[in-house]
Amino acid sequence: MKLNYPKIVEKLDLAKYNPSWGGQVLFVWVNPPSDDLVRMADMHKAHLELTNIPGNIQLVKGHLKDIEKPTKQEKEEHEKMLKFYEERLKELESDKYANAYEDYLTLLSGMLSQGADDTHVSVDDLKEIEKATKETDPAFWNWLQTEVVDMIANHRTGQKKG
User: With a cut of 50, which residues of the chain have pLDDT below it?
Assistant: First the structure.
């Protein structure tokens, strides 16, 4: 017997975030291949690190300056941290991660574009959502990404919607 393994798409009602978003729905592909999930996590992590590492380098440098008379051990620890951050930054700036955020958004878009054609969410749509909510409702973008991942995780672990 040959089984058909369909893409399973579940509804995400944005009113779950806030009732004022009511009536707006996205459709989430909850059984994407594991490889896509691993790549998505890797690209998102790389993007977050690229965003945060320069600030971390400045914090480490600033912290050392704030110590009136740093010991040899404190200097060595700071140098070790700086070396770690600088090497990681160099790795993240390599070709492997050159388009990390774009790749992440492409994968996310794919997970939000498996329903009817008029419900697809493009990479440009995602960029617009992020930009439009950044100043007025910054929690929304993080909530949306987390909700997609949670829906996929719940499906994979067999948890049913409440």
Answer: none
